[in-house]
Amino acid sequence: MAVQRIVIENCAIATVDADDTEYASGHIVVTDNRIESVGAGKAPDSLENVVRRIDGTGHLATPGLVNTHHHFYQWITRGLATDHNLFNWLVALYPTWARIDEPMAYSAAQGSLAMMARGGVTTAMDHHYVFPKDSGDLSGAIIRAARETGVRFTLARGSMDRSEKDGGLPPDFAVETLDGALAATEATVDEHHDASFDAMTQVAVAPCSPFSVSTELMKQGAELARRKGVRLHTHGSETVEEEQFCKELFGMGPTDYFESTGWLGEDVWMAHCVHMNDSDIAAFARTKTGVAHCPSSNARLAAGIARVPDMLAAGVPVGLGVDGTASNESGELHTELRNALLINRLGAHREAALNARQALRLGTFGGAQVLGRASQIGSLEAGKLADLVLWNLDTLAHASIADPVTALVFGAAAPVTLSLVNGKPVVEDGRLRTVDEDAIARSTRAQAQRLARIAARA
User: Fold this and answer.
1) What is the C-alpha to C-alpha distance for residues 437 and 134, in angstroms, rounded to an integer?
2) Contact 263/254 with Cβ under 8 angstroms?
3) Of 59, 125, 361, 449, which is the most exposed, with the fewest CB atoms less than 10 Å away?
């Protein structure tokens, strides 16, 4: 079968390659699911088998956004516990979350994925760690929703085995046993993980957090991940309360605890990492442990400002995360480009903390690094997978901003004219091509109401 080419031209291009190569007016040629070429000016007229030619005048092309931390199920509990810090928020919501079932998880995943995809996310991830007894195949439902949406996806198969009776935060009925969690995680890896270059679905091992997981689950989870050749993910150093918890329970801070359980390394990434001292950052840099920076969620839960400029200066891989939509109700990643830049400028580095291009790199190549896929996605380069976004900057909101990257990051959220994942259109003219947005809105509303009724009766 002959190759098929898509040509995009006359657009500004930010490649986010190692040299931050940009073109004021350039072209991108996509052949099947790969980027064939990126360059200045128009594409060659001699190209054969061009099935579509797109005029990108007034647009900026970037790599697709990569989300590195999320909890899809929280889509159906948005707008609750809005004035709580992390621990109080978890205590307030765990009893409701522990009643989710397969239809709820599927619908919530649809809503979360649709919102991200229509805003330029081409690679998503979900850290799902709540598995109530007899709730159905939650992992399968989440993966099915991602497949239908058409985005590249990493499922971080989470787990909890430290409940209230053991000094943890989740209620006793909301956790798994140690052996049950490990067996279910391994089964999920065996069934769903694809290690190929152009994989659409991958699986990571992801015990939830130090305050909801036993030390044995952390240690055996790390051993399982490395035996299976998959990545490791968890929450780390999110709040001062977590640091106090670790010191009281384990006699050390979070980073030292993670190192003692085998949870530092280039195959590991942590969500949040807000409360990191110099030695913590040095340990992450030395081991190449990645960080998912979630600025909106950190602000929503009053967790603090992560030291992202210091992490980047030390060589720590950093990407961006939406986090769960019960702590970031917008559910969008493209707004995190702006929020990461602005919130970090409130910290010690002030106006020098991040610039527009650093923020874009966090949301693209940085995310690809954190997910272990930097050789495949995250920049617009020949040979990489054709995951890209064409942002419309020919709007009232962006009309007077001359620099397109500044317009994208500092300005209002830009509409997505085209999003390609694996060379296939997922979004066109601001609407999803793959799923029915209106039907998903109705479904998620119904499942949220159903969950609220079940939780109220419990």
Assistant:
1) 29
2) no
3) 449
CB 294 within 8 A of CB 274: no
Residue count of the chain: 458
Question: 0.90 cut: is pTM over it?
Answer: yes
Model confidence at 166, in pLDDT bands (50, 70, 90)? confident
**From start to end of 101-160, where are the E strands?**
121-128, 152-159
DSSP E strand stretches across 223-317: 232-236, 268-272, 290-293
Q: Residue 157 to residues 135, 190, 368: CA-CA distances in angstroms?
A: 15, 12, 19
Query: Which amino acid is located at 217 in the chain?
Result: L
- Taking only the tens place, the pLDDT of each residue in 329-353 is 999 999 999 999 999 999 999 999 9
Half-sphere exposure of 162 (CA within 13 A, CB side): 17
Rounded CA-CA distance 35/382 in Å is 5
Q: Over the stretch 77-127, which tens digit does the pLDDT of each residue have? A: 999 999 999 889 988 999 999 999 999 999 999 999 999 999 999 999 999
3-state secondary structure of 25: strand
* Matching residue, tokens 């621990």: 87
d(CA 172, CA 240): 24
Tokens for 376, please give them. Answer: 């495949």
